[in-house]
Design a protein that fits this description.
374 residues; alpha/beta; Nucleotidyltransferase, domain 5; 2 domains; seven-stranded mixed beta sheet; five-stranded mixed beta sheet; 36% helix; 18% strand; disordered C terminus
Length: 374
């Protein structure tokens, strides 16, 4: 059995797998008043650990003597290649110090370690958002002081790419795949023979706009906007991440509602919303247009030799969005869709591969300087 832990800002997702079979999958909500007692996210470690132990004690499916590993969502570490990593002292030290940033995902490895010690098993993480396998040419911008960074949905991207390769009858290491994760943020990556050699910064840097991300902006216009508005840095950051993209144009990030409004608009039906159907349609089409452009630009990285274009993420459940993108990129060849984020399944599969010896378990090594060395 493998226990999977995925901490978020106000919840902890918990799942138990026996091989590939999911035995249970729970989302444990944490009351905001309870969390407010803790000065920082990391101070919540013992509290969340005790909550998890309480839940496990109530689950008849959980058999402590059958547990083989606990795997957590990877947090903000230094850039590293994709794969499975053992939770070691160097990793825990960097996460406790929030050396590369504070985020709820930092609790993933620490909670895995806490539970693994409780049950005497291995503690692991896999494919955190800081996975960095970019080619040197992909890092360049027009200013030497600024380089492009690899921050993306590595966990679901990698897991989905492996599924796509299996669908094609190949191994992940044999394929050239362009994978687009469509969610609150969007990442579009080229997977070349098992490595993500180019990808947009899905957090705040570049690429297509998404539901809550502004994406790439005309540099001069953005500079003039900053100079013309006396906004605090944190408010400017929110314009890029959280209040950009679809929500900036429409005032809503409710994609289900937006889809309903578009359908009503196209069918001349009643609309139970203040949203304008025509505007909603145009914004979503523009978003898909930009995703399609990003996909096609990455085909150039491998000289057009693309085995498949793959869509994943929550928005890949919307057939209108899928079709909008397919219509523009279908000429590249095989087009596959694996909707949803599938993070728990991906973590369980990574742990199973490590336990079975098909995936190596890597050791995390801290950088003394705090920066990735070339």
């Amino acid at each position: 059995m493998v226990l999977v832990i995925n901490p978020g800002s106000t919840s902890t997702k918990l799942a138990l797998f026996h091989g590939e079979k999911e035995l249970f999958n729970d989302r444990i909500g944490h009351d905001m008043e309870q969390l407010a007692r803790f000065p920082s996210v990391l101070d919540q470690l013992e509290f969340r650990g005790q909550v998890i132990l309480g839940v496990l004690g109530s689950k008849k499916e959980f058999q402590a003597d059958s547990l083989r590993a606990v795997i957590g969502r990877g947090g903000l570490l230094h850039p590293l290649p994709g794969g499975v990593y053992r939770v070691n002292e160097a990793m825990k030290r960097d996460l406790r110090r929030a050396r590369y940033g504070a985020h709820a995902s930092n609790l993933g490895a620490l909670l895995a370690d806490r539970l693994a010690l409780e049950y005497g098993v291995e503690a692991l993480i896999a494919d955190p958002i800081v996975v960095d396998e970019m080619n040197p040419l992909a890092r360049y911008t027009g200013l030497p002081e600024i380089s492009r960074k690899s921050i993306f949905h590595a966990l679901n991207q990698k897991a989905t790419a492996r599924k796509a390769a299996q669908e094609l009858g190949k191994t992940y290491g044999e394929c050239n795949l362009i994978v687009a994760h469509l969610g609150g943020g969007t990442s579009v990556a080229i997977h070349h023979r098992g490595r993500v050699i180019d990808v947009n910064n899905a957090l705040d840097g570049d690429g297509p706009f998404s539901v809550e991300r502004a994406g790439e902006l005309p540099a001069g216009d953005w500079l003039r906007f900053i100079l013309a508005h006396s906004e605090k840095p944190q408010d400017l950051q929110k314009r890029l991440t959280g209040r950009g993209g679809v929500v900036a144009h429409l005032g809503s990030n409710d994609m289900k509602l937006i889809s309903q409004v578009i359908t009503a608009h196209l069918q001349d039906g009643p609309v139970s919303s203040d949203l304008d159907g025509a505007k909603c349609l145009e914004v979503i089409q523009a978003m898909c247009y930009q995703v399609a452009k990003e996909i096609c630009s990455l085909a150039a990285v491998v000289a057009g030799r693309v085995d498949a274009v793959v869509l994943t993420g929550g928005m890949a459940m919307d057939q209108r969005i899928v079709q909008e993108i397919r219509d523009r990129v279908g000429f590249l060849g095989t087009f596959l869709v694996f909707p949803g984020e599938n993070e728990m399944e991906a973590l369980a599969a990574a742990a199973l591969g490590a336990l079975n010896g098909t995936e190596p378990i890597n050791e995390y090594v801290a950088f003394e300087s705090g920066f990735l060395k070339e």
